[in-house]
């Protein structure tokens, strides 16, 4: 198939593109490469996919991979409602995998406009292009943050998610509502994936795994919020991408026949790990104990997440298999190698 992967220079988008290419698909990656975090990391991910970083800086110019004839890349904002339809018209995609978004819960308190531009206006443009250019299936990233103040554990897609506690979460819930509308009105199969705390090599510098490792290696204290009384469904990136790719490659015949065009799934490790246990794994791999600065919970944070992934197991035989010890070791090994 020919697949558009937005956010292709991002953490999950990079790995998703890599697996889709290895499975024989043609992939066009799209990313605006904004400076929310170190753009060198984004350019170096693209280098792994065969795109020269100099080429990737050319706006609205499709760059071809030097090492994989099935991959090309375009630098573009999703909110560009003039250029995005031209891309769809010229490329004739079968599937769209929308992983591009302004990420980060805490940053949404400081810069709300960027979330509206990318996550709302940009997603509307993706929906409009999917409608106008007859996309067979739109798979898109939602987030576990939509559960907000939900106290019921584990989180289920049957739970009420009307009480988000960050603008980021509100935009992700809005994406699900917008997708539902387009599935209902225009018969577009859409699948939303609520990601749960993804970590692994090439991960984002603003995520806990990266922040803790970086601080410990550089003999700096780590910030431990809610005085360590936090739990997360930490999910290794390979397990996440396996689920994403299964959904992309799975035919939609059954759903179309049943008129079941709109679906939302949790995608996580199906387990909850204490934050202090997670930190202990990092300490073991680095051979040193972290200096911990215990702090109150941050605005927009929740105390505990845990994904019920029963629906994904039933429908796609999804089976996350990477333990915390394996995943943390893999990240620490990558970090040491990448930053020498």
UniProtKB/TrEMBL annotation:
Taxon lineage: Bacteria, Pseudomonadati, Bacteroidota, Flavobacteriia, Flavobacteriales
Coiled-coil segments: none
Record-annotated NAD-dependent epimerase/dehydratase domain positions: 3-268
Swiss-Prot/TrEMBL keywords: NAD
SUPFAM superfamilies: NAD(P)-binding Rossmann-fold domains
Top-level taxon of the source organism: Bacteria
Record-given protein name: NAD-dependent epimerase
InterPro entries, alphabetized: Epimerase_deHydtase, NAD(P)-bd_dom_sf
